[in-house]
Amino acid sequence: FFNTKRGKQKKMEDPTNNTSFYNIKKENRNITLTPKEGKHTETLIFMHGLGQSADFWFPKFNNEELNPFFKTSKIILLTAPNVPNALIKDGNVNSWYNIYENNADLWDKIEEKISLEEIDANTKYIHGLLD
Question: For 76-89, how does the pLDDT look when each residue is reduced to its tens digit (9 = 90+)?
Fold first, then answer.
């Protein structure tokens, strides 16, 4: 697994290894972690920031020292669609919605500065994961 942001390639931890205290399922570009022992009592759905991925965040959640919820939580690490984004001039990026303009007045007339349609579509996708 590689993080190719800004053209740099870095080998990422393989989420399918067996050294985890989780059962690990990689489906499409998402990773689901469930405790190996017992049932989970809560579910955390994690959405990364612009340009990141489930693979990027996996090592942080698969770390007993960094993750206080590992014994009781099901964790779903999502990866946003890889789409064009106006802030990124040279190609596609993992992004939950297009950002047309990023400045201090982002919240003023926000419907003109981000893609509300993409937010709506991704909201429906995430709700579908809960069903």
Answer: 999 999 998 888 87
